């Protein structure tokens, strides 16, 4: 008789029946292990949260007064006879993979991850396992990222050119992860860096963990003349809003993996697209799975059908499971900010 799966998918999330604990549940549960702070993975309403120490300030900032316990990287802890440990995912600050072991069987839930060392998040760590639950947000060959430094050289050159023309540069990036990655590699010698309130608030939470250049919050009192020629970091939800009026004249840019697609920049109505993502590209996914030595791969959120089919052709026992994770949205509604792009 086949042993039951160590992790199963149900209506609340990814569940470990033996330990009675969920991984990144999307409905309220008693015990939740959280991989990172993006809103599709870290939801409000759980009774007890467990995460990496560096993710605690993010969770408290976003979720308020919660019961949360922190653990260190690579430090096993046991729940009802099942051994868990958290390992760097390289996605954003505080992002983890969850390793789960019971009687020699090992599963790994990657959460969101990327294999490129961005100099901000703790770099991704491959983990040997029998079964790997992987995202595949960019799981088609069309996605191939440029080296990070090349992209940021392009961004700084764009900013400098705009300043010389008397224009303000406005970059759209999500408040958690993307914004801090952008800030880390901007050249402050070009000019002053300004921020939208959503960006500034999250950045202040993360400054104790990472060295970032000075930023200036744009308030109602800030004059347009003060901003002219500077760099403004704002969430995508600010695009097209009345908040942008005092930035005129400006050029806009979007930082996203979706900028690799023709037409994506036009659909977002931005002047410039910079291909930079906090997720693996096609080859990064394949390299990570190979490094895990997993025989079974479960694909969640993204190009699941295409990616799992390709893995099956390579000889993996590959399948698809549906989740409530967003991955990296190509289009962003005008409503609440999504944080996983």
TrEMBL record:
SUPFAM superfamilies: Metallo-hydrolase/oxidoreductase. GO terms for molecular function: RNA endonuclease activity. Residues 322-341 are annotated as: Disordered. Residues 330-341 have a biased composition (Basic and acidic residues). This is Putative mRNA 3-end processing factor. It comes from Algoriphagus iocasae.
């Amino acid at each position: 008789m086949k042993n039951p799966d160590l992790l199963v998918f149900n209506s609340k999330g990814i569940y470990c029946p033996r330990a009675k604990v969920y991984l990144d549940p999307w409905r309220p549960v008693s015990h939740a292990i959280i991989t990172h702070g993006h809103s599709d993975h870290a939801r409000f309403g759980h009774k007890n949260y467990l995460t990496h120490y560096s993710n605690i300030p993010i969770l408290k900032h976003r979720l308020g007064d919660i019961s949360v316990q922190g653990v260190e990287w690579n430090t096993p802890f046991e729940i009802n006879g099942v051994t868990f440990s958290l390992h760097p995912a390289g996605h954003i600050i505080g992002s983890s993979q969850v390793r789960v072991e019971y009687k020699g069987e090992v599963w790994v839930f990657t959460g969101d991850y990327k294999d490129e060392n961005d100099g901000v998040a703790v770099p991704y760590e491959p983990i040997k396992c029998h079964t790997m639950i992987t995202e595949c947000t960019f799981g088609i060959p069309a996605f191939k990222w440029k080296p990070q430094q090349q992209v940021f050289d392009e961004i700084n050159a764009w900013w400098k050119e705009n300043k010389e023309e008397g224009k303000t540069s406005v970059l759209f990036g999500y408040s958690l992860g993307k914004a801090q990655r952008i800030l880390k590699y901007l050249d402050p010698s070009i000019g002053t860096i300004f921020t939208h309130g959503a960006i500034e608030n999250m950045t202040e939470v993360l400054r104790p963990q990472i060295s970032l250049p000075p930023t200036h919050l744009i308030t109602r009192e800030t004059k347009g003349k003060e901003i002219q020629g500077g760099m403004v970091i704002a969430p995508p939800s600010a695009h097209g809003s009345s908040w942008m009026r005092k930035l005129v004249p400006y050029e806009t840019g979007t930082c996203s993996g979706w900028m690799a697609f023709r037409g994506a920049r036009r659909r977002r109505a931005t002047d410039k697209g910079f291909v930079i993502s906090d997720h693996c590209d096609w080859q990064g996914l394949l390299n990570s799975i190979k490094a895990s030595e997993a025989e079974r791969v479960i694909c969640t959120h993204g190009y699941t059908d295409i990616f799992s089919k390709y893995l099956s052709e390579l000889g993996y026992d590959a399948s698809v499971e549906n989740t409530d994770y967003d991955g990296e949205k190509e289009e962003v509604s005008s409503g609440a900010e999504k944080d996983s792009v």
